[in-house]
């Protein structure tokens, strides 16, 4: 049986007429029984939706579609809409969600917390133990930058083109634990590393371990956090399938006694930066050699790496169709730039609203 897979998506709340982000998350969520599926986030201009653990991609697809529509319906009651964008394409002052934890984060991290209005996509895949989970985290590290490139959907920031396909990744990188990690070696090594980080007193709690991939503190899963939120839910399903394939492939390598790659952390950071800068419209670094290669070739290398796991889960067709669509049409970043050139940031927001709940 295939591993369970679940997705968290962060969405912007925008004015239904002007398209500008609106700080109304508390009003949108007020009184609704959405304690797990729809929740507030760091800023009042966004909310988060959560799928359940799904056994099949069909189930995940239906859940994401349903919860996006439910979020859109709740937002509509407050005169706003939801938009799946990694960053706001128009200038907006973020407004912090008035919660104890978020207030503590703002006090501890100042402008970093105040300016962080970004929307990501987090994929959870079930693992059988912490030991297996850490073995997976250690082995998937070089394969995460291609996922970032595929999901890149945040080229615009405060009304300007940043030159990056995923500027969300750059903004989020200001948090002290964000980004790729070294190998941990074992569950004991992972727990020891986490304990050392928490003992510094800098982090509010374990939830602030913003690694690109980590063990979930709440669920028996590996959580991959590197991706931008996808403009369409079908693309999020493709990413989820690839992450599940990576987890299964890594777990099999560990079970077979194959060692984790001993990749230099500096190279992993460069690969992530390259993916954030170029997306699918330039060179990436090959996960096996860390030499430049075309984005299409790197994506094909990723698919080939997890192909057996995709076949066994019945996911290969979905992934192939999704990859063909993304590599031919481009990522969300390319679409945003095309719309921005025609109508500016508000046009990008309106276009995103149409695509988010389509």
Automatic annotation (TrEMBL):
<keyword id="KW-0067">ATP-binding</keyword>
<dbReference type="GO" id="GO:0004357">
    <property type="term" value="F:glutamate-cysteine ligase activity"/>
</dbReference>
<dbReference type="Pfam" id="PF04107">
    <property type="entry name" value="GCS2"/>
</dbReference>
<dbReference type="InterPro" id="IPR014746">
    <property type="entry name" value="Gln_synth/guanido_kin_cat_dom"/>
</dbReference>
<dbReference type="InterPro" id="IPR006336">
    <property type="entry name" value="GCS2"/>
</dbReference>
<comment type="function">
    <text>ATP-dependent carboxylate-amine ligase which exhibits weak glutamate--cysteine ligase activity.</text>
</comment>
<dbReference type="GO" id="GO:0042398">
    <property type="term" value="P:modified amino acid biosynthetic process"/>
</dbReference>
<keyword id="KW-0436">Ligase</keyword>
<protein>
    <recommendedName>
        <fullName>Putative glutamate--cysteine ligase 2</fullName>
        <ecNumber>6.3.2.2</ecNumber>
    </recommendedName>
</protein>
<comment type="similarity">
    <text>Belongs to the glutamate--cysteine ligase type 2 family. YbdK subfamily.</text>
</comment>
<dbReference type="GO" id="GO:0005524">
    <property type="term" value="F:ATP binding"/>
</dbReference>
<dbReference type="InterPro" id="IPR011793">
    <property type="entry name" value="YbdK"/>
</dbReference>
<keyword id="KW-0547">Nucleotide-binding</keyword>
<dbReference type="InterPro" id="IPR050141">
    <property type="entry name" value="GCL_type2/YbdK_subfam"/>
</dbReference>
């Amino acid at each position: 049986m295939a591993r369970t897979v679940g997705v968290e998506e962060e969405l912007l709340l925008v004015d239904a007429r002007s398209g500008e982000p609106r700080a109304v998350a508390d009003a949108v969520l007020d009184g609704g029984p959405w304690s797990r599926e729809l929740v507030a986030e760091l800023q009042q201009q966004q909310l988060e939706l959560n799928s359940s653990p799904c056994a099949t991609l069909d189930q995940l697809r239906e859940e994401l579609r349903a919860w996006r529509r439910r979020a859109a319906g709740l937002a509509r009651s407050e005169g706003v809409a939801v938009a799946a964008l990694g960053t706001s394409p128009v200038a907006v002052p973020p407004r912090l969600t008035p919660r104890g934890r978020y207030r503590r984060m703002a006090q501890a991290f100042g402008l970093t917390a105040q300016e962080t209005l970004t929307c990501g996509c987090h994929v959870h895949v079930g693992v059988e133990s912490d030991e297996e989970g850490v073995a997976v985290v250690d082995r998937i590290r070089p394969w995460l930058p291609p996922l970032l490139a595929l999901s890149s959907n945040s080229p615009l920031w405060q009304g300007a083109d940043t030159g990056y396909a995923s500027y969300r990744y750059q903004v989020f990188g200001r948090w002290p634990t964000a980004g790729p990690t070294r190998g941990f070696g074992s569950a004991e090594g992972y727990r020891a590393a986490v304990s050392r980080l928490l003992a510094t007193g800098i982090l509010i709690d374990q939830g602030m371990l913003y690694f690109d991939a980590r063990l979930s503190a709440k669920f028996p899963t590996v959580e991959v956090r590197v991706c931008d939120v996808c403009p369409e839910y079908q693309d999020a399903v493709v990413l989820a399938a690839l992450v599940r394939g990576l987890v299964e492939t890594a777990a099999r390598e560990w079970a077979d006694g194959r060692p984790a790659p001993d990749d230099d952390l500096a190279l992993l950071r460069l690969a992530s930066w390259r993916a954030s800068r170029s997306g699918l419209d330039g060179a990436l670094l090959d996960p096996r050699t860390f030499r430049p290669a075309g984005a299409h070739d790197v994506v094909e290398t990723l698919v080939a790496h997890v192909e057996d796991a995709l076949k066994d889960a019945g996911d290969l067709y979905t992934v192939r169709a999704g990859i063909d669509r993304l590599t031919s049409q481009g990522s969300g970043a390319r679409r945003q730039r095309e719309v921005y050139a025609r109508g500016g940031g508000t046009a990008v927001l309106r276009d995103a609203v149409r695509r988010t709940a389509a």
